[in-house]
Each structure stands twice: as structure tokens, then as C-alpha cells.
Amino acid sequence: MVSESFRLAQEERPGAVHLELPEDVATEEVPDQLFQPGQTNHPTANQENIRDAVNMIKKAKMPLLLFGAGANRADTCDALKHFVNKTGIPFFNTQMGKGVVDERHELFLGTAALSENDFLHSAIKKADLIVNIGHDVIEKPPFIMKHNNVKVIHINYFPAQIDAVYFPQLNVVGDITDTIQRITTEMSISEHWDFSFYKEMKEKIEGHLTKYFEDKRFPILPQRLVTVLRKELPDDGILSLDNGIYKIWFARNYKAYQRNTLLLDNALATMGAGLPVAMMAKMLYPKRKVVAVVGDGGFMMNSQELETAVRLKLDLTVIILNDESYGMIKWKQEDMGFENYGMDYGNPDFVTYAESYGATGHRPKNDKEVITTIRECLNAKGVHLIDMAVDYSLNHPILNVLLKENESN
User: Which residues of the chain does CATH 3.40.50.1220 include?
Assistant: First the structure.
């Protein structure tokens, strides 16, 4: 089992493997016999599937590219950038695929922060082919497949897990980087491709998303905080998110310039993960700026880790978006027609709380102080916690009524 654990840890999908020994087994002595972990060979897609994928892309009128969690690998990023530049096909990504290709790219349409009914989905509905690269079922579905004229190509190390919302017409199974490189080699631009609708939609999408970027009201809008942090963090700065309604705003509005610079959990959406993730990122990359953005609810589920961060002498900035409630569930209650029930609570004095652990606490009172405080914390030593009052009043009108204008198109 130890040998198998090492093998699993080195599979294509990297990660930790937990091996638990019962106490009676753990006390037993064992012979000094070690097993060498077996070598992992990455499969390659067969040529027939490569040709089928190329033909489907060439025949499509409005193809789209989607980059998921499985595409978030260094060599894959380079291959996809080359593919996008050669073909000129627009692309979007999942939350865990952010930064796979620099989101400042002119062909980037946006991030699928919701499964449907977002501005981006009006462009997705127009596509007749979606090339889904690195799809991972641990993620919230970036779109809901329907039995219509939209075809899907699944490119991954693993075949698609077919279900009611995902049933691709073609599986191209093998090393993703190798697959993309081979498709790129055989690919040529089709004269009948028409991306004009995507270009129009991108302008509309960006118009909606940037509407409140310079809104300096206080308590701060999450869109405004996105803008400030994007300006203050360098290209390789790392932003870690906990789980809450703000995660949707950041996934949609924060442009990632490099892979793994926006870290979030889009699987079980575990509250309390944002701070520990930021701490580990800072330990792995001590020279890079690291910020954790957490809700007050998620922060209090793991707030004791401030002591660990202080003890490890990390230079870390923690921003608490404080609305004294479970904002995501409050939004869901409202969206489902329920009354607001049991979602509001009281918080401790976060500045004093941070100082009790040996961290430095801050509480900005206006937009100007927000900017100066974040800038000072990013350039200071030690652990800094910012208690940030947040205004979620736009959650309902913007997140719940997204497609009225788009449906008219």
C-alpha cells in the first residue's frame, strides 16, 4: 500500500495521498523489505482520434475552446497558447483553469464562474462546437450540455465520465500536451469560421463586468476590491480565495496572467481553506506576493492558523470581507424564494483578534485607505490582517438577472 501510495502521488493528477494505519498494525514490526514505486507512463492519443478532432474543428462554424483544471500544467499552457495564436479560436476557462493562457489575450472571453445563465453563456449557446481541454468532474460544470446541435470534444488524460449534463461526441484520450501539439500541427484556419458574435459579446461582457470597477463607495464592492488587488499585485502574485459569494466575483472579474496565481476550491467548496492555502503558497514561493481573500464566516472556521503563520514568520496579507453573515447562503436563500433565516451573526474585533496572535490588524474606513493599506501590507514584513467591510447589495440584481439583455439577442 505504501508503494501504491507513491505511485498514485506521481500520477498525472498530482496531489497528496493519505494512508492510515490502524493502531494495532502501526505497532507491528515489519521486515526491512522496500518496494520500488513503479514508473508512470503517460498514454498518447491515437492518430485516428487526432484526425477526427481536427476535422470536427475545421467543419465547425463557431468553435470555442474551454480550458479546465486538467490543462493547468506548465507545458500544456505553452502548447495551448501556440494553438490559440495559430488558429485564432476564442477561448474561455473554468475557475480552476484561470491563467492557463494569459487572460489579457485578445481572444479570451471570460471565466465560467456559474454553470449557466451568466453573460458568458450567451456566447457558449451560440457555439456549434466546444473543445473541452482538461475537463475535471471535481469542478462545477462550466456549462450544461443539452441534446441540441452543439458538439463537444473531450481532450484529457482520462475519458469523459458520461452523465446527464456532459456527454461529449468525441473523446481524445492521452497526454494533453502531446494531443494539443499534434492537433496544432495538423490544424489550419477555415475560411467559414465566424467569430464576430464572440467579439461583440466580449465587449458587452466586459462592459457589464467593469461597470463598478471604479465605484469608490464604502463599504467596498467586491468588484472594486478585484480592481485594486489586480493593480497592486504583480503578474506572478498569488491570490488565494476561501469560499463565499465573493469567489464568483473574483472568478469572473480578476484576470489571471499566469497559471496558479488565482487559487480557489471549485470542488467541495470547503470553507476555511483560503488562509491555509495562502500560507502554503507563501512557503513554496517566499519571494512572491501572496494574499488571502476570505469571508468572515470562512475565516472563523480556521482563524487559529494565524498563529501558525506568525510562528513561521510568513510575510502574508489576509483580507477579511466582513458582512457579518454567510453571504453565499443568504443569496441562495433569496434566489430560491426563502426568507433570510439564520445567516446573520456577530464577529469579534478582528483587529484585536489578529494582534492577540502577534499579527498586525488594519481596518480601512474609505476607498483611499483601502488602497494605501493593501499597498503597505504587500510591502511589509509579517502577517497583516485587513478587516474589510463589504457591500454585497449588488449580488441579487447582477448575479440573478444576468441574461435578460442577452436573451433578446
Answer: 47-204
Domain ranges in the chain with CATH number 3.40.50.970: 211-398
Task: List beta partners, residue 383.
Answer: 316
Is residue 319 within a helix (H) or strand (E), and if so which, with residue range?
strand 316-322
The conformation of residue 69, written as its DSSP 8-state character, comes to: G
Question: DSSP letters along 21-46, please?
Answer: --HHHHTS---S---PPPPP------
Q: Which residues contact 251 (CB under 8 A, 6 or more apart)?
A: 95, 98, 111, 113, 262, 264
Residues listed for the chain? 409
> How far apart, in whole angstroms, are the C-alpha atoms of residue 285 and residue 279?
10
Read off the pLDDT of residues 233-290 as tens digits, 9 standing for 90 and up: 999 999 999 998 899 899 989 999 999 999 998 777 788 999 999 999 999 999 999 9
Between helix 222-232 and helix 367-378 the angle, nearest 10°, is 40
- In CATH terms, is domain 211-398 a member of 3.40.50.970? yes
Q: Which class is 47-204 in CATH? A: alpha beta
What's the rounded Cα separation, in Å, for the pair 371 and 356? Answer: 25
